[in-house]
TrEMBL record:
Family per similarity comment: Belongs to the UreF family.
InterPro entries associated with the record: UreF, UreF_sf
Transmembrane segments: none
The name this protein goes by in its record: Urease accessory protein UreF
Record localization: Cytoplasm
One CC-aspect GO term: cytoplasm
Superkingdom as given in the UniProt entry: Bacteria
Single GO MF annotation: nickel cation binding
Complex formation: UreD, UreF and UreG form a complex that acts as a GTP-hydrolysis-dependent molecular chaperone, activating the urease apoprotein by helping to assemble the nickel containing metallocenter of UreC. The UreE protein probably delivers the nickel.
Amino acid sequence: MSRAALLLLADGRFPAGGYAHSGGVEAAVAHKAVHDIDSLEAFCRGRLHTTGLTTAGLAAAAAAGCDPLMLDDAADARTPVPALRAVARKLGRQMMRAACATFPSAELDRLAAERPQGAHQPIVQGLAARAAGLTPQDAACAAAYETVGGPATAAVRLLSLDPLDASRLLARLSVETDTVAAAAADAAARVATEGPDALPTASAPLLDITGEQHAAWTIRLFAS
């Protein structure tokens, strides 16, 4: 197991396309729900414990060796909004290219062949973690961190926030991020006996609604 591989997977510079997506914060800024560092922290915390927990569970299950096609179907069921399903698969395609180049794996190759239009991003992320020799909890940690790191970085650009404040925000959320990752990994460990229903199903309906609205905008800074 390489901790450096975990850092690489969680790095915003990993060429998987995440930098072009705001994680819903662009729409939240437009609706005035996020307007300063405190409201951004509330947004990130809510996203972490809903979308973050769900995606971290999927990533952990993929890293644990669960059937990725089954998990991809489970991800579809947990992503009811067409716009966000399309985003998840687009990010999955982009991560697949980066993952195959960085952590070559027969499992990644098989998933790419089975899902040529792209698998859901956390499934690919989990398989990349598995190929890198990381644990399911490592995969969950990377996925959970991404659900807050992406919006925090995007908000700095959207609101001209101080990047140091955004970094402090992520530091304050670090213990909660670890807790979410541990819960996700525990759920993933039960998939072998309980099936995909063991995985978290936490959702954020307002993010679903604004995600669909955002997809219809003609002018936007971020793809989602």
